[in-house]
Amino acid sequence: MDANERISSLRERIDEVDEELVHLLNERARLVQELAEHKLEAGIPLFDPRREEEILRRVVEINEGPIYDSSMRDIFELIMHRIRDIELQRRGE
User: Fold this and answer.
1) pTM summary value
2) CB 3.0 to 4.6 Å from 44: which of 29, 32, 39, 64, for a disulfide?
């Protein structure tokens, strides 16, 4: 395989991974929405800072790199923040 073929092959794989990430992020958002519905029914506050910290600790624990732990934490903080925004907008808050 020459360099151009290898580059093309790697780009195709990156596109596949991106597609998986989009699918998984939307699945995560749907699960959070479902969780929010159950919390509201049970009268439990939507935002739980202890749970978010638990998620961030777990993400760092399972991170195998090459992404730095601090960067992975930043990425997940952004994901959780954006998904929380979706939930707040759905509820008109």
Assistant:
1) 0.86
2) 39
